[in-house]
Amino acid sequence: MRENRGQYTTITVCSVCRCKTLHKFLSLGPTPLANSFLREDQLSAPEPYYPLDVCFCSACGLVQLVHVVAPEILFKDYAYLTSTSKPMEAHFARLAEEVIWRFSVPPGSLVVDIGSNDGTLLRNFQKYNMNILGIEPADNVAELAMSRGIETVNDFFDERLARIVFAERGQAKVILATNVFAHVADLEGFVRGVTHLLADDGIFIIEVPYLVDMLQKLEFDTIYHEHLRYFAVRPLVTLFNRFGMGIVEVQHIGVHGGSLRVYVHKSPCSLSSSEAKLLELEEEAKLGSLETYQKFAEEVWWVKEALLSFLKSLKAQGARIAGYGATAKGNTLLNYCKVGTNILDYISDTTPFKQGRYTPGMHIPVLPESHFHESPPDYALLLAWNYAGKILQNEEGYRQSGGRFIVPLPKPKLV
Ligand code: TYD
Ligand code: ZN
Prior knowledge:
Elements: E1 2-3, E2 8-10, E3 22-27, E4 48-49, E5 53-57, E6 63-65, E7 67-69, H1 71-75, H2 86-102, E8 110-114, H3 120-127, E9 131-135, H4 139-147, E10 152-153, H5 159-169, E11 172-178, H6 187-197, E12 198-209, H7 211-216, E13 229-230, H8 233-242, E14 246-253, E15 259-265, H9 273-284, H10 290-316, E16 321-324, H11 328-337, E17 344-348, E18 366-367, H12 369-374, E19 379-382, H13 388-394, H14 396-400, E20 404-407, E21 413-414
Parallel strand pairs: 1-4, 8-9, 8-11, 9-10, 11-12, 16-17, 16-19, 17-18, 19-20
Antiparallel strand pairs: 2-7, 3-5, 5-6, 6-13, 12-15, 14-15, 20-21
Helix pairs in contact: 2-3, 5-6
Bound molecules: thymidine-5'-diphosphate and zinc ion.
Zinc ion binds at residues 14, 16-17, 19, 57, 59-60, 62.
């Protein structure tokens, strides 16, 4: 383990409201980066670890990480490819259709996707003859998108880049930021960039995992260094108000364990019924109270104990256990619960890049799906629980022949 001071900063003010009213409520301990899968030759080298602590801002209600790892370390080379997850492909195809029809986006409009990954979302806009542009900081991923015919700027989005894009391409009718809004270190620069690039009648769409789901379903494993913030509607209202923007509508959607899709205009809007409904839900869930988070932290500790003793008891009976889905969130779970190769023989995953590598911290080998089918374990720990429905359906054969899935959260359960 190597503590990497100097490669992360510690926040002193809230990234949404700038207040100093930050209260730390959870520490998952020093943790390696969740997507840093290791090659075999890297296993003996000291691995960088960074603190993984979470705090709550009592002024605006934002939940955020205390320590921010430098973006260049996190995002210049990236393991996650959207196109490897079929359910996300389908989700993005529907998103594109909804945006185009709802906002009557005419062909030829500039559609910018920030954090465009391998271009999976933009390809759907391309089908409708939109003028598309991806912005993607990871060199390897941007290159892949380009090779697939998706024009991509290989850079971080900020005000500077927004000005360059605007000068070269004009204003954007649609700007998308799905699963990236929680990742950007300079949130203000990001939003300023959006206000600069977006047309007056344009629409800005974000998708972020929803704090209410994380708390209610105990999805603590979605906490890792890439996810700097855990959003609810209330802090988003504060943020967009600061920039004179307005929320048109908020949808509570199912992806990534429960997320928000937020449609935002450049100018203020009156409170929509969807926004009011979710604000009420947040009130009921006591999102404004520090005790809610302290209770969550206690539950996280309990589930760790429960999962570990459950897995150990299966192991003591001679069971063979493998992980299913080498997810980033799985690495939070495994590192925090200290589940290593003493418990899991391997983790199966469909992503070619991860296969043959080892998980950060616990060093569990990642093997292709074919291995899972050739040598099925007695139990499969479902680390990709966000795709539970699809995976359980796909693995009907495994279950028919006696294999069981362990769903780890909100409490360990056999299915
Ligand atoms: P993802 O949903 O991106 O989770 P995270 O953001 O926590 O990394 O990752 C899903 C992972 O699971 C990805 O590596 C692909 C893998 N996977 C399978 O191995 N089999 C499947 O059937 C599905 C749907 C995903
Ligand atoms: Zn705040």
